[in-house]
Amino acid sequence: MADYNPGSIEPKWQRIWDEKRSFAAPDLPDGRGFYCLEMLPYPSGRIHMGHVRNYSIGDVVARFKKMRGLQVMHPMGWDSFGMPAENAAIQRGLHPREWTESNIVDMRTQLKKMGFAYDWSREIASHRPDYYRWNQWLFIRMFERGLAYRSLRLVNWCPQCATVLANEQVEQGACWRCGTPVVQKSLDQWFFRISRYADELLADLDRMPGWPEKVLTMQRNWIGRSEGAFVDFRIAEQPEADPIRVFTTRIDTIFGATFLALAPGHPVVRSLLEASEGRAAAEAFIAAERAVPVGERLSAEREKTGVTTGRHAVNPFTGEKIPIWIANFVLMEYGTGAIMGVPGHDERDAEFAGRYGLPSVPVIDAEGRTIDSGRFSGLPCERARGVMTQWANDNGFGEASVQFRLKDWGISRQRYWGTPIPMIHCAGCGIVPVPDADLPVLLPDDVSITGAGGSPLESSPSFANTTCPKCSSPARRDTDTMDTFVDSSWYFYRYLDPRNDKAPFRPEVARGWFPIDLYIGGITHAILHLMYARFFSMVMRDIGLGTPGEPVANLLTQGMVLKGGTAMSKSRGNVVAPDEMIEKYGADVTRLFVLFAAPPERDLEWSESGIDGLHRFARRAWRLLDAHAPAIVDAPAPSGSGEMRRRTHQTLARVTDDIDRRLHLNTAISAIMELVNAIYLFAPPEEPIASRSAEDRAALKEALETLTICLGPFAPHMAEEAWSMLGGGAHRGLLVDHRWPEADARLLTLEEVTIVVQVNGKVRGRVEVPQGAAETLVMEAVRRNERLASMVFAGESVRVVKTVFVPDKLLNVVVAP
After folding, report:
1. By the 8 A CB rule, do 294 and 156 touch?
2. What distance in Å separates the CA atoms of residue 616 and residue 622, rounded to the nearest whole number?
3. In 10 A of CB 384, how many CB atoms?
4. pLDDT recorded at residue 294
5. Of 108, 296, 515, 745, which one's alpha carbon is 20 to 30 angstroms from that of 21?
6. What radius of gyration, in Å, describes the C-alpha atoms of the chain?
7. Helical H runs in 712-759?
8. Which residues pair with 232 in a beta bridge?
9. Number of Cβ atoms within 10 Å of the Cβ of 426
10. Could you please report the per-residue DSSP string of 418-467?
11. How far apart are CA 551 and CA 532, in angstroms?
């Protein structure tokens, strides 16, 4: 028997699949289509086992669905803009494009060596002009609809990356990419008005049963819908100035408001401090707060501090003046950046008031009714909120409002390696979009990339200096680039029409494939990529491009591959590249290991000892196929209902269900292993099958063909080779084109077997139970047998000491008086 040799088998079938374009998807599905997608990788240079696990899960499903008769869309591309390439270019003296393209070549080669069933004709890369041109086109469409706008804001700034971060990119107060504490900085920035879609983004979460509940909860919490009221407080010392607007969910406590607190970055602070005796102290406090990392500012345990402005606000319900403070616990990111302090009914406000000697006035009693609240006294709180909000509205100083934690997405980045923002700043015309005919606005090559200071695009006169498309006057281009999450927010549409030079994609193509039937990626993107992708899909729908409904029907957040207890990451230096595993074990064994070692949604600790076990299994399966294939190629079709046939069809049913319905790929592999064991018992490879009966040969052929088919999605190279050995190839075509069989329902029911029952080692009777019955079921059968029950379950006079159970054969019950 020839030993299993993946080094010769795997390249052979990769070449054949490529030549026959086995995984090419049509532009439009003719009948049933299935869109299977894994989150596209960043081309950092090499893939590691974390990537392999993600892509292996998707590949099993894509191959299975193809064999089930569906037309499968399974593309791959590159999320290739971003800071790592820029930083690498700075360190190595290379252009980011050169570094990125080289990495893409290496990673594409690695993916192809794994045998993944991708339609490579649809490959995209976000750093190429034919892709980012449409980022710019979509930006202009959003600008035309008021969804892209520019504003001076306090923004999250990462000192290490030297760029702005969106709120979603700040994780526990640190940069999501490098972990550096984030600080606040005032900059003129571009924003996407994602808040306009907040209600829809929230409501749709209740209509997404194919998403993990954990992701839905994370998005609900991030969107953070709050019903309440706006209330305007006039400034007592500046009656002509605009009032300070607060948002509160508890307007019923407003009679207990004893101070107003502003965020250090609130726009009214500057005017309040003019001519104020405490101006110097207040400005020092503000400067110190801006340097505090965002994570520390958000901490609930942080000591509540502030500084008075020396000014007062007028409570519109009482007419009383209350002091205006600047407080470190009030954030511009939430509400209006101003709160009314009610120490009597808020622990945070009480802590602040206690520190600075501010009064506390209770206005809600123990029964939840308002007290000392003027005309509103005695009302239940919920009733009071409605009545008081209406009274504020009727008197012109308030209104009902719904607020969201979700804030508009800041997309300006002060880095080179991203999509140039296609806007022009003209002294006479203001901000003007680049005409569509002039897209793409290309990244210039005459730049100085240092990673420090402002945008590198500012250093390129040929890029920054231009003329206004409206008045032809000298003007300047916007020198910021877009957040790279823009690239990944719509790439799954571009896959469907990747060479279109007239539009991002054709709407009819999108309607033919969407929604994505299965999307696979890490839960780390729950409120980053996944929220932005939903937003972009809604925008594209509204401009006539996209499709109705959510873009992703079913989401799988796969577990991470860990090494030393932490997720594999190039930045942590704990990665294992698949190349060494392929060299030693082959791609199929590598795939089998990452799929078998844990359920898809759970983390997996890397262990090469585990992959050794899968290698032994693959060689064992191969010995069966190699030994018996020549003798059973011409075996007749099976017709009996013997044990081998039952095991074969039970395995087929289990594997089908585990992939198609449950996505329990580890248990599917376990079922295949059990089938291999059963075949070894039925026909050991060292015993010739030619001398066996025609029915045995037929059952063995069916078993080996079913084994090969079930292995196909998991170990496709081995399976394809085995299929050709079993009479595939010229006679029946490739395994990848073969239809997945249906299990014979008549063979799925278990036959009954006779179990010998011993009591204290002596045979006392027999019971009939279904084949494979557990010991508890056999004991129940004993209980139902009057003679056996009298010896085993004779009340208090007899007790069971222990049992010895041999499945399907024997039960020995040891009893004692």
Report:
1. yes
2. 10
3. 25
4. 64
5. 515
6. 34
7. 716-725
8. 245
9. 19
10. SPBP-EEEETTTEEEEPPGGG---PPPSS----SSSS-GGGG-HHHHEEE
11. 11
Q: What is the 3-state secondary structure (H, E, C) of 5-44?
A: CHHHHHHHHHHHHHHHCCCCCCCCCCCCEEEEEECCCCCC
Q: Count Cβ atoms below 10 Å from residue 754 Cβ, excluding itself.
A: 11
Burial (Cβ within 10 Å: 0-12, 13-18, ≥19) of residue 427: exposed
**pLDDT tens sequence across 562-595:** 888 888 877 677 888 899 999 999 999 999 999 9
E strands in 92-169 = 148-158, 163-165
**Terminal-to-terminal C-alpha distance of the chain:** 58
CA within 13 Å, CB half, 300: 2
Distance CA(696)–CA(631), nearest Å, equals: 12
Amino acid at 803: T
Percent of the chain with pLDDT over 90: 73
By CB atoms closer than 10 A (0-12, 13-18, 19+), residue 596 is buried
Nearest to 60 by CA among 44, 49, 45, 74: 74
8 Å CB contact between 13 and 721: yes
Spatial distance between the Cα atoms of 512 and 534, rounded to a whole number of angstroms: 18
For 307-366, what is each residue's pLDDT tens digit? 999 999 999 999 999 999 999 999 887 789 999 999 999 999 999 999 999 999 999 999
User: For residues 220 and 510, is the Cβ–Cβ distance under 8 A?
Assistant: no
Q: How far apart are CA 346 and CA 333, in angstroms?
A: 20
For residue 716, say if its preceding peptide bond is cis, omega within 30 degrees of 0. no
More confident residue, 568 or 382: 382
Phi-psi region of 20 (alpha: psi -120 to 50; beta: other; left: phi over 0): alpha
Q: What does the pLDDT look like over 694-743, one tens digit per residue?
A: 999 999 999 999 999 999 999 999 999 999 999 865 457 999 999 999 99
- With beta carbons less than 8 A apart as the criterion, state whether 99 and 88 touch: yes
User: Do strands 321-327 and 259-262 pair parallel, antiparallel, or not at all (unpaired)?
Assistant: parallel
Average pLDDT over residues 804-808: 91
With a CB cutoff of 8 Å and minimum separation 6, the contacts of 250 are 228, 342, 345, 385
- Which residues have CB under 8 Å from 479's CB, separation 6+? 454, 455, 457, 458, 463, 464
104-113, 197-206, 697-706, 764-773: range with lowest mean pLDDT? 764-773
Is the Cα torsion angle 232, 235, 240, 242 positive or negative in sign? Answer: negative
pLDDT for position 730: 47
Phi-psi region of 384 (alpha: psi -120 to 50; beta: other; left: phi over 0): alpha
- Percentage of the chain with pLDDT > 70? 98
Half-sphere exposure of 199 toward its Cβ, with a 13 Å CA cutoff? 5
What is the distance between the alpha carbons of residues 284 and 447, in angstroms, rounded to a whole number?
38
Q: Where is pLDDT greater, at 448 or 491?
A: 491
How many C-beta atoms lie closer than 10 Å to residue 265's C-beta? Answer: 19
Is the Cα dihedral 207, 208, 209, 215 positive or negative? negative
pLDDT digits (tens, 9 = 90+) for 200-259: 999 999 999 999 999 999 999 999 999 999 999 999 999 999 999 999 999 999 999 999
Q: pLDDT value at position 367?
A: 95
pTM equals: 0.86
